[in-house]
Amino acid sequence: MKAPLSWIKDYVNLDGLSIEEIARHLTMTGLEVDGILLVGLPKPEGEKHEFKYEGLSWDPDKFVVARVDEVMPHPNADKLVLCRLNDGAKEMIILTGAPNLFPYKAIGPLAEPPKVAYAREGAQLYDGHQPGQVLTKLKRAVIRGIESFSMICSEKELGISEEHEGVIILDGDAPVGMPLVDYMGDAVFDISILPNMVRDASIIGIARELAAVTKRPLREPEGAKLSRGTRLSELVSLEVRDPELNPRFMLGMIEDAQPKPSPYWVQRRLSLAGMRPIDALVDATNYTMLDTGEPLHAFDYDLLVRRAGGSKPAIITRVAEKGEKLTTLDGNTHTLDDSMELVCDSAGPLSLAGVMGGSETGIHAGSSRVLLEAASWNFINIRKTISKVRIASEAGWRFSRGVHPALAEYALSLCLKRMAEWAGGSLVDGVLDAYTRVQVDPLVRLSEAEIVSALGAPIPLEEAEDILTRLGFSCRIENDQLSAQTPATRLDIGEGIIGKANLIEEISRVYGYDRLPATRLSAELPAQAGNPKLDMEERIRDILVSAGLQDTVAYRQTSPEREARLLLENAPDPALEYVRIKNPITPDRTVLRRSSLATMLELLEHNHKFRPGLAMFELGPVFLPVEGQLLPDEALRLTIGMTGTREYPTWQNNKPEQKDFFDLKGAVETLLKGLHIENVSYRPAQHLSFHPGKCAEVWAGEQKLGVLGELHPLVREHYEFESGAVLAAELDADLLLALSQTQFNHQPISSYPFMVEDIALIVPEETPAAALEASIREAGGKLLVNVRLFDIYRGEKLGEGKKSMAYQLTYQAQDRTLTDKDAETIRNRIVRALAKEYGAVLRSQ
Amino acid sequence: MSVLEQLEQEKITALSELESAQTEAELEAWRLAHLGKSSRVMQAFSALGSASKEERPLIGKSANAVKVALESAYAAKNEAMRQLALAQAVEKERLDVTLPGRALRRGRLHPLNQTLREICRVFGDMGFQVYRSPEVETDDYNFTFLNMPPYHPARDMWDTFYTEKEGVLLRTHTSPGQIHIMRERAPEAIRAILPGTTMRYEQLTARSEIEFVQVEVLVVGKGITFADMKGTLNDFAARTFGKDARTRLRPSHFPFTEPSAEMDVECFVCGGEGCGVCKGSGWLEILGCGMVHPTVLEYGGYDPNVFSGFAAGMGIDRSTLMRYRVDDIRHFRNNDVRFLEQF
């Protein structure tokens, strides 16, 4: 909502308050000021401002009200005229091309000289000929043989609007010579209206808040006195068919209106509030809507009569018939359905109720008899209609948030009065009013004890009463209870305990949150329980970070196509169920991800060119729809990705080695050891995305933790990687968390010496290293405390299909020093066992 | 020349020769020549048997004295040469200490997770427990149970991603977690924080994201007041922004709290003087808060006549953005290593 300061000041005296103070008051009552547009007024002094200022300040010495006494032709140019202008100090000749001064050309001295906004030499203003707002300074120049040094201003040049077709013609009573800033300097507050403060999407509403918080009186404007005469009912009839959708509908009328513009001050305020001035009649409806918050609609009565074939028009409000069509004021034709409320006459729809008028029957230049509608609509129904027809209008914005039915009457009387004043018409006797669903405004009772228990501090009932009264409530204190009757301007106050909460908010926000105390919680602490799952997630992060991996945070939104790059076919599997987004923001974010591997590969792809080597991880959910379940499973995945070199090249080693499968496996092993997960095994595996020979599943006992591998060479072609293996692991983090242990037995450290010996065993090529080591450990028994593979050798001497695995074995006892004989016994046991299990032969030294 | 004189002469000659030995080889040659088997001193010892009875002790004593003198001179010379060689070697091993060291590869926590940890720790110290709930939610939990029935105007405050499944959406805030935890704990008291990823239908720009991390704060119990909320959030601000950080509460509106407020903290970049980060206002908006709405308490299973509570919600992305003056919120989820490595 854009609220001009001059307009607010019509209803509350703000003398002595700076723009900045007013904006702070507004913000502290809940009307957050997003910015302030200066339209003439100076920016507050000082460097520090709490609010953002834009716009133009008018130097009082350079901008004044002036009078054009005569308009003369330019000797050398048809499109220019010369004005004899008086700025209160002296008379001079001014050059202008403003078309709206041409009607005065060459008719001699003017009997009613127009008043204009005049900018003297050196004035700083916006360039009227450049798009947007470009500051310029008026300089002396010669145009077509005539010297020019100052100008008569358009709205664009003064920063009032984009209008640059003609110059501003001020109202006749503008005092010549007065600095323009004193005459009409203004500031516009750009206010965010909260959903529960729709009543303040109105100048009177804003003024009411300021009056309440500054403790100054509110002067509400008075409308025309609405008579209960019968003449109008002879001219038009009214029928409301769905009172639930249309709780109130009022009609008033004015006749003998003349086609003319509204006073300039009205036009200027409308422009500042963001609405385009049209003529006196339309301006009166818009001005009154901005004033009160009640949207109004005006019909040309004579057009209605014509539609009724010359007989008395009937206004009917009803729901549309399915398929019924209406062309709205914006020129769009809408096909309607039977949930949408219409204002009709006997010939058909006139307007889409509460949203936008029809193009046929609205007032136009030349309307003389005007039928004015002020109504109240069911806001939920209006919201539904707007979401279907997709019309954005000031009326729809307000009605879809709820407008109190009582405002209809007030706005009708105000608007009729303004129409009569600004368009010169007169009121037709009587109004029609179908008010069948009378709004019951809640009466809320509140005790001081209730205030204390909500706020933690007493606000005396008298002060609460004063605040509520200023906000328009009718209050009474009886038996230590405050009774507050909600005013007929707002719909946000509830009944019972909700009403009490609503009132406490009203009281406390005007009282000032800053005046309330701050205390520490004194209520008893709830039973304390840890969050072991979160703790273990953090442990996972810590282990991987300490191992040199980078933590990342991933988007949940992706597309099946993006995920399909992981597949050999590079095409989405239509059988895959996704959580699909109904209103995706971009075509590449249409679903929630199923694969964290896909996310990780995108991260590696994006980053690989920035660093010689990458090692990253991500802990986050994937979303797996489950048949017969409303919400998807959100399964936590730990994903590790690596590529590039093991080290960054340095002056010591300019060609570091590329990472391979075992770098990735090392990271997984480090993690699982850190989490104390037991019985871990790695099994060769096949996976759609991985190299068939470089892929393993990792298991803990009989539970599969996940998969790790090198990207399949063909899959890799779907991504832009340069050289080196691309490695990734995807682990079931929920299972990791479930299997991880925070309590485990430590191994005692022996104080006896250890013995080390190396053995090399020749085994068939296909013997898995993990199996061999497991057998060594088993055969070695508890005195064998460490087994380390240090060499793998293949060669002709061993024969085809054989490999030699060299192990360093460490023997140690907890209770004695081992002898050579002990070592020999263990070694023999190992060799025997391996010979039996794998046909292993001890390689001669 | 007598044997004694010969020994004396040998001592003079040997010591003088020792003086001129320059290399380890020359020194070794000297040792063989003057202390070896065939050296004059050793020869003198071997010849003792053939010496006269009177001369024998004299020659023995003298030979021994010369031997001791030569040995000690040799030891001294040897040590001096070793020291010299070491000094020369050390001189040769001198490094250019300005060359770069071997970098240890360090992993880092994502900046959002760093902020999140810090907030969890601060609230944890105040006795708050961490509670989490799903990211895909029902319309009821995201809106209706939070006092926003269908078509409620306040729903416009959240631009929502809907799924193709009727009534299922991507949660726009962590507040649905309030209902989950209340239904789980009622009628026990609650003091919890609810962190999590939320999603909103926004344009992706430097200032707006479609996914971001929020933390919700929830207290429910008997006798919880607005003043308690103010005190608790002030304590949080003091822990996070420094003990002298000034705060203010501004009236605001959230359908699930009444009264509602926004909390501003004095800009920690400029100290309230006005700067680019606070857009000149001196204040930074850090969280929204309010007393839990009676309707929400009821949906959560608490009798609003007996229980009260407060809730607060803050954006982790935004506060991290402000803290490190990050100019583009999308950096957080683009995970560019050049960005992440700075934290």
Tell me the Rg of chain B in angstroms. Answer: 44 Å
Strand content of chain A: 25-35%
Give the strand line-up of the largest sheet of chain A. Answer: 30-33-34-38-37-36-35
Distance between the termini of chain A: 92 Å
Descriptors for this entry?
heterodimer; A: 845 residues; alpha+beta; Phenylalanyl-tRNA Synthetase, Chain B, domain 1; OB fold (Dihydrolipoamide Acetyltransferase, E2P); Phenylalanyl-tRNA Synthetase, Chain B, domain 3; 6 domains; 7-stranded mixed β-sheet; 6-stranded antiparallel β-sheet; 23 helices; 42 strands; B: 343 residues; BirA Bifunctional Protein, domain 2; 2 domains; two-stranded antiparallel ribbon; 12 helices; 9 strands
Structure characterization notes:
- The complex is a heterodimer of chains A (845) and B (343).
- Chain A is α+β, with helices and mostly antiparallel strands and 845 residues long.
- Chain A folds into six domains: 2-56 and 187-214, Phenylalanyl-tRNA Synthetase, Chain B, domain 1 (2-Layer Sandwich), CATH 3.30.56.10; 59-184, OB fold (Dihydrolipoamide Acetyltransferase, E2P) (Beta Barrel); 231-435, Phenylalanyl-tRNA Synthetase, Chain B, domain 3 (3-Layer(bba) Sandwich); 443-509, Phenylalanyl-tRNA Synthetase, Chain B, domain 1; 532-739, Bira Bifunctional Protein, Domain 2 (BirA Bifunctional Protein, domain 2); 755-842, Alpha-Beta Plaits.
- Chain A contains 23 helices and 42 strands.
- In chain A, strands 30-33-34-38-37-36-35 form a seven-stranded mixed β-sheet, sandwiched between helices. In chain A, strands 4, 5, 6, 7, 12 and 13 form a six-stranded antiparallel β-sheet that branches. Chain A has a five-stranded mixed β-sheet with strand order 15-18-21-22-23.
- The longest helix of chain A has 19 residues, at 820-838.
- Chain A starts with a strand and ends with a strand.
- Chain B is of the alpha+beta class and 343 residues long.
- Chain B has two domains: 3-92; 111-340, Bira Bifunctional Protein, Domain 2 (BirA Bifunctional Protein, domain 2).
- Helix content of chain B is 42%, strand content 19%.
- In chain B, the strands form two sheets. Chain B has a seven-stranded mixed β-sheet, with helices on both faces.
- In chain B, strand 6 and strand 7 form a beta hairpin.
- In chain B, helix 1 (3-20) packs parallel to helix 4, helix 3 (40-46) packs antiparallel against helix 4 (55-92) and helix 5 packs across helix 10 (316-323).
- At the A-B interface, helix 2, helix 10, helix 13, helix 15 and helix 16 of A face helix 5, strand 1, strand 2, strand 4 and strand 5 of B.
